[in-house]
Amino acid sequence: MDISKILEYQKLDSELFKIEKSLRDNEDKKIVNQMQQNAKIAQERSFKLDEKAKELEKEFSVAKNQYEIQRKKMDEIFAKDIDKLSKEEVERLVKLKDKLSQNLAILERNFAKLAESMNSLLSDFNKTKNAYQMAREQYSKSKLNFDKAQNEVQPRKEEISKQLANLEKGIDSKIIEAYKKRRAENIFPVVVPLTSNCCGGCRVELSMANLSKLKDEKVLTCEHCHRIIYAKD
Ligand SMILES: [Zn+2]
Question: Ligand 1 centroid to 233 CA: how many Å?
Fold first, then answer.
């Protein structure tokens, strides 16, 4: 088997691989991904805070109703003409008044707690909003930079791809298929020489059986890294 063509193909492909790697490792791309994540987290947080705010609103309205009911009962007691009541009725009213006072005190404490919760919720809301805005701003800036970097290499990428497609026509389809599979896994180089009876990619030593197979067939798939090994003449 003539491996010079696949080696030529790989040599050209190495430039494409480098371009792709530089885009994968692009710092702005990493920021873009991170900021997308941050914005998503902030959004989820704000949904949760919104739900919490609705709960607090409900609690507040329940407490307010209870407060008004107790207040009204209290007013009714004060409106009564004590002189016209029997001793037992007065005693009963005094007890009721004490109970109502206690209830009102509890409700007032609840109000204070609810107000505290609302304040902390509000501050959490503002922090989340700021985090979201910051993420959006950083995202836009880095996205612009990354798009620019991508656009700069696009013509060369297309040129190489075209040339590769041409070269591919002269290569054994099984070899090119195996090559593309490894390449898609970002393994590079895919085609490596046998070096001191070892795979030129992962350095694992070949068995005697595989060495003789390689001698016969000229190429062999490494059992360890799945690269294509060829024997140098
Ligand atoms: Zn290997």
Answer: 19
Instruction: With beta carbons less than 8 A apart as the criterion, state whether 171 and 191 touch.
Output: no
Cα 202 to ligand 1 centroid, rounded to whole Å:
4
Rounded distance between C-alpha atoms, residue 79 and residue 66, angstroms: 20
CA 201–ligand 1 middle distance (angstroms): 5
Condensed to tens digits (0 to 9), the pLDDT of residues 27-73 reads 999 999 999 999 999 999 999 999 999 999 999 899 889 889 988 98
Ligand 1 centre to CA of 17 (Å) is 19
Q: In what order do the strands lie in the sheet with 228-230?
A: 198-199, 191-195, 228-230, 219-221
Measure 227 CA to ligand 1 centroid, in angstroms.
6
| Residue spans per domain, the chain | 26-168
Give 214 Cα–ligand 1 centroid separation in angstroms.
Answer: 13
24 CA from centroid of ligand 1 (Å): 24
- What are the tens digits of pLDDT across the range 62-108? 988 988 998 898 888 888 888 888 889 889 888 988 998 998 899 89
Task: Report pTM.
Answer: 0.70
Question: How many Cβ atoms are within 10 Å of 32's Cβ, its own excluded?
Answer: 21
Q: How far is the CA of 223 from the centre of ligand 1 (A)?
A: 7
Query: At the topology level of CATH, where does 26-168 sit?
Result: Helix Hairpins (1.10.287)
CB neighbours of residue 36 within 10 Å: 14
| CA–CA gap between residue 102 and residue 213 (Å, rounded) | 94
